[in-house]
């Protein structure tokens, strides 16, 4: 899937100020990236345990979990190679928790919303890998660009599963979460993380 399809889906691009901060905070970037890969694998596994009668979901989430764990292994190789401390005290940012806040609590709406959130997170990850890569050293740039194919497929898998689970048009619900995501990406954020918003001290530059 070309990156343009991701841009067409999301409502905004990553602010340049976030890219500048990411370049200057690559230690935190890689540690949080590793944590995101672990969380993505965990989310896929949780869905597999919760929805055991959905064979399409089971197949796609099993593959996704394996790929995310492989990405985790690759990121921690960078962390180890570059002498970065894998600081497990770095807490998760606000992004994922706030994205999941509007998820409905009854089925199948809960599954539909959870899958939509998963699609948006994967789309944003893909967009950030592509935007950040040109500003990184050759080794890390090559790695981030190599992730685009799998991340874009994860985005499409989540979205197709959401449509199947809903059994009806989900465009309106997708827009609810995309609008929230845009707000999180474009608003000020005190913490730098892989999915954080505009750096507070650089907010005026955006």
Helix-residue proportion: 55-70%
* Count of discrete alpha- or pi-helical segments spanning 4 or more residues: 9
Number of strands: 2
Low-pLDDT windows of residues? 202-206
Q: What is Rg? A: 17 Å
The H/E string reads: HHHHHHHHHEE
Structural class: mainly alpha
- With strands numbered from the N-terminus, the spatial order across the biggest sheet is 1-2
Distance between the termini: 28 Å
- Taken from the alpha-carbon principal axes, the silhouette is globular
Question: Mean pLDDT score, rounded?
Answer: 94
Largest sheet: 2 strands, parallel
β-strand percent reads: under 5%
Oligomer: single chain
What does this entry look like structurally?
There is one protein chain. This protein has a two-stranded parallel ribbon with strand order 1-2. Helix 3 runs antiparallel to helix 4 and helix 6 packs across helix 9. It is mostly helical. 69% of the residues lie in helices and 2% in strands. It is built from nine helices and two strands.
